[in-house]
Design a protein that fits this description.
Strand order of the largest sheet of chain B: 6-7-8-3-9-10
Distance between the termini of chain A: 47 Å
Strand content of chain B: 15-25%
Shape of chain A: elongated
Oligomer: heterodimer
Mean pLDDT of chain A: 92
Radius of gyration of chain B: 20 Å
Shape of chain B: globular
Helix content of chain B: 25-40%
CATH architecture of chain B: 3-Layer(aba) Sandwich
CATH topology of chain B: Rossmann fold
Number of domains of chain B: 1
CATH class of chain B: Alpha Beta
Chain lengths: 259, 274
């Protein structure tokens, strides 16, 4: 009986939290008009959330592309298929690794920062202070951060993929001696805009939405103590990473499941 | 004064307000009125719901039962737009100051003005400097909140609370954790601001001496109710045992020294078998 109570309590708590998160998201969208009337709020947050995440995204993209090229070459060369190296690197990055790894890195770098910032603003009564100054913190603080994260991740995932392709090119062509023309032409022939590029963009849009939603909600819903903010930040990274991987599976099944 | 109903002498009225956090009752039928143009102090031990009263006035919490009327408006019944319109006519000084930590003192005070008014920059600058001069911190306008002492942060927060010329300023524990000099400065400022701007002030505090120094009228809250009220002189003269314990700072009395627990002997004899 006690087990059922525990399970039931846990389920109710999670469903109620999901409900709170949904109402919160609705309020964020309602407050989203601020980004049109005061675009400077959005631009400032795109800098904080997107531009400051560029370094980790570019460096990680470069290394992932180089590793892919090494591993791909070693496998393909056994079958005399090293001419497909460019295609393999490009497909891996556009369909999967670009959106997924960029989202995971984004959750760790920008998502945790968003949660900590909003959580600390709550703990130090800055959000309450804004409310008492008749300034809606969801419009003024949360909405610009949410939309900035959402836009930024889509662009960061594209940059991750692009830099990864150049990393793959460097290892494949410059180091391992694959013909440059073959590398690019296999990519040109094999990568389909709708099937591969658009599916990658759709994934990064979905991941951007979910990761940023989790990050801003966890901050806003954090228990306003040092421990509460710390737990919320951890939850952001764990939940956002798991959500990205689960959604990636679902989206891949929907996009490529019938092939 | 930024009031819409200036003929009434009463600015804020609590009518039989009940409130509980979950199962824990906090307020059990509070009735009180806050007059216009005066400094009203709400005193009481920590955890008796004094700050909750301020949250009702600002509409950040709603009572479970009863009503809170501010300038003729029932706060719990206001829509979000009306509530925000009412809040523009109030200022609140939080215990922590609640300054925005990523902008400097000047920008903190300019923040509500920038959010609600479109003033030319030179006018805004003069307005902010005027308020900073009132609290004696005009020279500190470029400092960041992290560079301020506790007393300075509270003075900046006070300047921010009055920058829109509100009808009411609420002070949540304005003296807590301050050194004697900073405390004296805040005591002086609350009185000066109230008189100079012709506003009404509500001070929630447990610092008895400071409340005596500035309040025109006082309420004493304990056990979820108003247990005493009157002018500082009337409360000073009260022989009510609960009033005396609080005013004289006695460690034991109606508010017991010990948190409720099982008998001490029983607890020791159990040998840690809880």
């Amino acid at each position: 009986m006690r087990l059922f109570t525990l399970i039931g309590g846990g389920v109710i708590a999670r469903v109620s939290r999901l409900g709170r998160a949904s109402v919160f998201l609705y309020r964020v969208f309602l407050g989203g008009w601020q980004i049109f009337t005061r675009p400077s709020l959005l631009v400032h947050q795109i800098y904080a959330v997107g531009v400051l995440t560029l370094t980790i995204i570019l460096v990680a993209g470069l290394f992932v592309g180089m590793v892919l090229s090494f591993q791909g070459y070693n496998t393909l060369v056994d079958f005399g298929a090293e001419s497909s190296l460019g295609l393999m690197v490009a497909l891996s990055l556009t369909r999967e690794l670009g959106p997924v790894l960029a989202a995971l890195l984004f959750a760790g770098r920008a998502g945790s920062a968003l949660t900590a910032e909003i959580g600390l603003m709550k703990a130090t009564q800055q959000l309450a202070g804004m409310e008492m100054m008749a300034v809606n913190p969801i419009e003024r603080v949360v909405a610009p951060r949410f939309f900035a994260g959402f836009f930024s991740l889509t662009l960061l995932a594209a940059l991750f993929t692009a830099v990864g392709v150049f990393g793959g090119h460097f290892i494949g062509v410059t180091v391992l001696g694959v013909d440059a023309g073959v590398f690019w032409s296999s990519m040109q022939e094999g990568v389909d805009f709708n099937d591969d590029i658009v599916s990658g963009i759709v994934k990064s849009i979905v991941f951007g939405f979910v990761v940023t939603w989790i990050a801003v909600f966890e901050g806003y819903d954090a228990v306003p103590t040092a421990e509460g903010v710390s737990r919320a930040t951890t939850r952001t990274v764990v939940n956002a990473s798991l959500a990205v991987l689960a959604l990636d599976f679902i989206l891949t099944s929907l996009m490529f499941g019938d092939v | 004064m930024n009031s819409k109903n200036p003929d009434s002498d009463v600015l804020v009225e609590f009518r039989d307000v009940h409130f509980a956090y979950g199962d824990r009752p906090i307020l059990k039928g509070v009735n009180l009125t806050i007059p216009r143009g005066k400094v009203t102090a709400i005193l009481g031990p920590s955890g008796t719901g004094k700050t909750t009263l301020l949250n009702f006035i600002g509409g950040r919490l709603h009572p479970d039962r009863g009503d809170v009327i501010v300038d003729g408006l029932s706060v719990p019944r206001l829509g979000l737009k009306q509530l925000y319109a009412l809040r523009k006519r109030m200022g609140m000084l939080f215990q922590s100051g609640a300054l925005l930590t990523d902008i400097n003192v000047f920008e903190n005070i300019a923040f509500p003005v920038r959010e609600h008014c479109r003033l030319p920059e030179p006018v805004l600058r003069n307005l902010v400097l005027l308020k900073l001069e009132m609290v004696g911190l005009r020279g500190a306008r470029q400092l960041m909140p992290s560079e301020l002492s506790g007393g300075m942060a509270r003075r900046v927060a006070l300047a921010r609370a009055i920058v829109l010329d509100p009808m009411l300023v609420m002070y949540d524990e304005p003296f807590a954790g301050l050194d004697p000099i900073s405390m004296a400065v805040i005591v002086k400022l609350i009185g000066e601001v109230n008189d100079a701007l012709g506003i009404s002030s509500v001070v929630v505090t447990h610092d008895v001496a400071e409340a005596y120094a500035i309040a025109h009228y006082m309420y004493l809250v304990a056990d979820g109710r108003i247990i005493a009220q009157g002018t500082p002189e009337e409360l000073q003269a009260s022989q009510q045992i609960q009033v005396r314990q609080f005013m004289d700072g006695l460690p034991d009395g109606p508010v017991p020294y010990h948190y409720p627990a099982a008998a001490y002997e029983d607890d020791l004899l159990r040998g840690g078998l809880d």
